[in-house]
Design a protein that fits this description.
mainly beta, 4% helix, globular
């Protein structure tokens, strides 16, 4: 989902997952995939910072351009999106509840 920021119609904020892609020159690149589109990340100093967050969800703000074959974003700032905790809940078992059958 992309939305333009007020006062600066070219600057857009998107929320999506970072994916590695192989570019035409056999270089590694990145894209951010939201619910509607994939945005190829311009691999400048700010864009390269996203390399540490592949497969993470981010909220990224930048300038989006539409090329002939893809959308591109020049990142001005980003932050990780905080999700739910993937750790399993700790479960306390009541020892009296466990089945104590004899193995005759």
């Amino acid at each position: 989902m992309a939305r333009e920021k007020k006062g600066s119609p070219k600057e857009t904020t998107i929320v999506g997952f970072i994916e590695e892609i192989e570019l035409e020159d056999d270089e590694t690149g990145l894209q951010i995939v939201d619910e509607e589109h994939a945005y190829r990340v311009e691999m400048d100093r700010q864009g390269r910072k996203l390399l540490d967050y592949v497969e993470e969800e981010v909220e990224a703000t930048g300038f989006v351009t539409k090329g002939s074959d893809a959308r591109e974003i020049k990142i001005t700032r980003f932050r990780l999106v905080e999700g739910y905790d993937d750790e399993e809940e700790e479960v306390d078992f009541d020892e009296d509840f466990l089945d104590h059958r004899d193995d005759d």
